[in-house]
Amino acid sequence: DSTLRLHVRVARLGTRFVLLLAEDRTEAHRLDEVRRDFVANISHELKTPIASVSLLAEALDQAADEPEQVRRFAGRLSVEATRLAHITSEVIELSRLQARDALRPDRLVRVDKVIAAAVDQNRVVAGGKQVEVAVRASTKAEVYGDQALLIVAVHNLIANAIAYSNPGGRVGVGAKVDGDVVEIAVTDQGIGIEADELERVFERFYRVDQARSRNTGGSGLGLSIVKHTVQNHGGDVRVWSQPGRGSTFMIRLPRAEAAIEPGSDDGRAT
Ligand code: ADP
Hints:
Blueprint: H1 2-62, H2 67-99, E1 108-110, H3 111-121, H4 123-129, E2 132-137, E3 142-144, H5 147-163, E4 170-178, E5 181-188, H6 195-198, H7 210-215, H8 222-232, E6 236-242, E7 246-254, H9 256-260
Parallel strand pairs: 2-4
Antiparallel strand pairs: 1-3, 4-5, 5-7, 6-7
Helix pairs in contact: 1-2, 2-8, 3-5, 5-8
Bound molecules: adenosine-5'-diphosphate.
Region (Disordered): 256-270
Main location: membrane
EC number: 2.7.13.3
């Protein structure tokens, strides 16, 4: 009787082990696919600017004795070089984020400081496009995390809001505490996003309108970086949009006080 029980237990454990192995292999397979896609995407994305650079170099060579042409081609070369540098640094950033497990962040980061830095970094571009960026509400609440990464995430949302606004448009940035969560929202009155595209904008290299995005210098990686950063911080990112009316992107992060001192008197209703 006890041998039978033992057999059953061993069989059960065996099944569980095989299932675990199978799950592991599926996950490994999925990651492998993700990696292969990523490399294919990168090669594709880099091909266009690299081709432009070699064409422009050739054109420069042929226009050697026409200073006006030389200046024009040199200017375009510089634009393409900047784009290549931008894509490369985003690819590196994203692969770093993807390679890392969920952060076990031990640093307290003040949300209002993240927002101020991200807004500041976008000031010049906003001014150039005559888009007004205003911080409507802020909070001194803290989250656990990596300040530099969080600034990049909020920066990307603001940069997009400006890029997809019409000249003269307004971008609002706000943050507030909602229970155990800190919400950071970036709202624009720009071109908006169609409902069936909303899910996809967080995918790597995904752009709603390839040509238009290319003109705005986008790589299609910005939101993917936002998503991974926020997920690594134990949060999520949401989007609401109306084509022609504008969009709101919201980052939600676990609030630090709530994480370390459950039930402590921190001014919240219990
Ligand atoms: P990109 O570098 O092209 O901006 P992102 O990953 O940041 O890449 O965004 C992906 C796509 O989502 C963009 O190409 C754009 O089509 C769309 N998008 C992102 N933010 C906005 C926004 N605020 N308003 C309208 N469309 C947006």
